[in-house]
């Protein structure tokens, strides 16, 4: 089977993304990496880290030791590590969309992204709630965010919303679409037959039979009953405070949390370094780091590249599993 070509996008150029990409370019992978980035910021990060980096040339292939293929998306103003410039919001988004276009056109077989600073993009005048939403709108698909590490997979019914907006956003339609996308991806991308999904309640103690909130009774339970009728193996709604107890978690292929901070603190606590963020439902595999821009570390050389490395490995396996004629295997 051919090695997949993966689009690698550092994300916010003033964050740790460029230096983590430079570290990735020192290693050999089972994929060819094509950088969609500001080449000057990458070269500056390499100089700063004292790592080799060859000037990109059109005929170059990626190889360990800093040789890389570049789709150059120059930043509007010089990059200063640790200080995002709103003027660079457009080029940060343009790099993500150029990589998405390469994936949609089949020139790349997957996308790996570093962290993006949501406030910097919005301060630059571009409405942006996250890269998952950007890529979903660009592809015209409904997409589900799922984070995974060796201990667990956690998908989210709602993502980057103010907490006060969550109950209203949690409609039967949204929940049903989310569960269908999650169920299909666990089968197609992760080769799990008849996956078991734990669905959390929204309220404390899953609403305590309606005494602590009615979303479980009015929204979640009817959707679960409907989808169970189609044969999906769904447990819940479970009280979130005990759903992650190891003995329970071991029975689930994935947990669906109702909102961002219901599920992600548990996952990130259990393994920040090895966790990755996978977009389910896109026409191509997209995997991101689980951490943010770490502006406090940018330029220090102390940022841990483990999540980016795990994202490259996961995306390589997902791309290989989707390749024509691929045998089915468990990719992550
Ligand atoms: N994948 C993404 O695009 C992504 C993910 C999460 C947060 N963000 C964004 O990043 C920005 C900053 O978010 P935050 O401060 O809440 O989270 P953060 O992950 O940037 O930082 C939280 C803490 O973790 C540390 N940390 C993060 N990455 C690290 C690494 N690779 N190695 C060592 N330590 C690391 C930081 O130094 C900090 O102490 C926000 O705009 C947020 O929305 C983006
Ligand atoms: N919710 C993600 C996390 O906590 O890791 C993160 O903010 C990035 O999401 P996007 O890939 O949609 O930007």
The averaged pLDDT comes out at: 94
Q: Please tally the β strands and state the result.
A: 11
Bound molecules: nicotinamide-adenine-dinucleotide, 4-hydroxy-L-threonine-5-monophosphate
Structural class call reads alpha/beta
The strand order across the widest sheet is 3-2-1-4-11-10-5-6-9-7-8
Number of helices: 12
Task: Give the terminus-to-terminus CA distance.
Answer: 19 Å
The assigned CATH architecture of the largest domain is: 3-Layer(aba) Sandwich
Task: Kindly identify the CATH topology of the largest domain.
Answer: Isopropylmalate Dehydrogenase
Task: Quickly name the level 1 CATH class of the largest domain.
Answer: Alpha Beta
- Share in β-strands: 15-25%
- Portion of residues within helices: 25-40%
Question: Mind telling me the CATH superfamily name of the largest domain?
Answer: Isopropylmalate Dehydrogenase
Largest sheet: 11 strands, mixed
Shape: globular
Uncertain regions: pLDDT < 50 for 5+ in a row? none
In short:
This protein has 332 residues and is an alpha/beta fold. Helix content is 37%, strand content 16%.
Please describe the structure with a list of short key phrases separated by commas or semicolons:
binds 4-hydroxy-L-threonine-5-monophosphate; 332 residues; oxidoreductase; binds nicotinamide-adenine-dinucleotide; 37% helix; Isopropylmalate Dehydrogenase; 2 domains; eleven-stranded mixed beta sheet; 12 helices; EC 1.1.1.262; PdxA; 11 strands; single chain; 16% strand; alpha/beta
């Amino acid at each position: 089977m051919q090695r997949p070509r993966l689009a690698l996008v550092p994300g916010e150029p003033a964050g740790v993304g460029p230096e983590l990409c430079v570290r990735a370019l020192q290693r050999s992978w089972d994929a060819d990496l094509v950088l969609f980035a500001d080449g000057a910021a990458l070269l500056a990060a390499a100089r700063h880290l004292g790592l080799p980096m060859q000037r990109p040339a059109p005929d170059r292939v990626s190889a360990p030791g800093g040789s890389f293929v570049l789709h150059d998306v120059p930043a509007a103003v010089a990059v200063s590590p640790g200080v995002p410039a709103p003027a660079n919001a457009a080029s940060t988004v343009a790099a993500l969309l150029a990589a998405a276009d390469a994936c949609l056109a089949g020139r790349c077989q997957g996308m790996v992204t570093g962290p993006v600073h949501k406030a910097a993009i919005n301060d630059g005048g571009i409405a942006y709630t996250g890269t998952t939403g950007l890529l979903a709108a660009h592809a015209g698909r409904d997409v589900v965010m799922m984070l995974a590490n060796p201990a667990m997979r956690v998908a989210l019914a709602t993502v980057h919303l103010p907490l006060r907006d969550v109950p209203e956003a949690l409609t039967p339609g949204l929940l049903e679409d989310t569960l269908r996308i999650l169920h299909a991806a666990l089968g197609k991308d992760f080769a799990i037959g008849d996956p078991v999904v734990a669905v959390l309640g929204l309220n404390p103690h899953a609403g305590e039979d309606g005494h602590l909130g009615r979303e479980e009774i009015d929204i979640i339970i009817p959707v679960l009953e409907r989808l169970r009728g189609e044969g999906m193996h769904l447990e819940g709604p479970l009280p979130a405070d005990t759903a992650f107890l190891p003995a329970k978690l071991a029975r689930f292929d994935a947990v669906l949390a109702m909102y961002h901070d219901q599920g992600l603190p548990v996952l990130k606590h259990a393994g920040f370094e090895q966790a990755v963020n996978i977009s389910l439902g896109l026409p191509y595999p997209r995997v991101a780091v689980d951490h943010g821009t770490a502006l406090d570390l940018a330029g220090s050389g102390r940022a841990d590249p483990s999540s980016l490395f795990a994202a490259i490995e996961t995306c390589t396996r997902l791309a290989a599993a989707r390749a024509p004629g691929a045998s089915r295997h468990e990719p992550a």
